[in-house]
Amino acid sequence: MEYFLTDEQQELRELACRIAREKVKPVRAQHDREGTFPWDMVEVFRQAGFFGVYIPEEYGGTGGGIMELVLVTEELSRICGGIALAVAATALGTFPVLLSGNDEQKARYLPDLVTGRKLAAFGLTEPDAGSDAGSIQTRAVKKGDRYILNGLKHFITNGSVAKIYTVIASTDPAKGTRGATAFIVEEGFPGFRYGKIEDKLGIRASRTSELIFEDCEVPEENRLGREGQGFIVAMRTLDRSRPGVASQALGIAQGAFDLAAEYTSRRIQFGKPVASFQGVQFMLADMASNIEAARALIYSTARMIDAGVQNVARESSMCKLIAADTAMQVTTDSVQLFGGYGYMHDYPIEKFMRDAKITQIYEGTNQILRSVIGRHILKETAGR
Ligand code: COS
What we know:
By secondary structure, this protein is α+β, with helices and mostly antiparallel strands. The protein has helices spanning 7-34, 39-48, 66-79, 85-100, 103-115, 230-266, 278-306, 313-338, 349-357, 366-382; strands at residues 120-123, 139-143, 146-157, 164-170, 180-186, 192-197, 208-219, 223-224, 268-269, 272-273.
């Protein structure tokens, strides 16, 4: 497909592709096996400028948008969906500052995020508030010129490796979603510490941990937006980050497909390459078609957001829904095409299947995304 990328976008894609092959590929198996955070690759990504591709030039970024973030995430995920998250999860944690931060907050926090000198993370999920993001229990109580935070966030991507956290807490539980407020919390704030580090099925090169707030003191100037706007901050953030997760899923699917197409072309059974059998060709054709459909949807949505369209909840939900389901299907079929070899850790293909699964779960399960899309359909139908 021809997506008419600009010269700069094409160069960025080629750079990400080259770095993924030359730098990420040699270390992905070890980080996956040992569950270690890829600081070595973070340094490479810093030098390549990947942390600033979606940040306006006035804050030191290269002035691109969601499209640039999508291109980088896709290419890195073709090689390792876990390592790619160092960039993508930092973007998730940075969006609230970009979207709702005041000038002083942007000037204070964005320069370090642009360069990747500091990583960021987004703290919304809690043990009893996953899909039901409105039921968060973490409390923030105003005391003088500070807020005192108490509560627990869990399953936080980049948790304990990030230095800057955008955290959603409730300042008025009686008001439900209208009582949530967003804050910027820095590593080292009194009363903030890390809890359990998760041992995961996939994306093992990405860190996932708990954030614990025990009378954590957050200065008032670190409140993002007004009190009560936190849920909207979170929803607007997810609207912009879901195409990024979708591109992670897309990259994982493409990476698995590349391996499966290559393997079935050279694997000889019954005297010929297994790709010459129609049953295998049909599988490859479905995989390639679904990948291209997901890519077209993601790029279109990214361009909509970059053009300034505000209400993108429906489209960004569609992106992640289609790309994540495609990634799961394509990676499972790829393992199947590798046969017994596909099941072994010696071959890279099983890792793609493990990495794909999370994309159907985080940043909104695919069931929640169907609900979001369904609600929009009902609203549109009622408005006709
Ligand atoms: N943009 C702007 N505003 C939005 C919005 C969006 N995308 N989605 C909802 N809102 C607003 C609504 O308009 C409503 O505003 P009012 O109070 O003024 O009416 C408010 O937010 C509450 O919305 P709603 O009633 O739809 O909230 P629900 O509690 O029903 O929850 C879902 C909505 C399910 C969509 C939300 O909880 C969600 O996205 N859950 C998944 C969370 C998730 O992705 N978790 C992963 C963790 S982050 S890695």
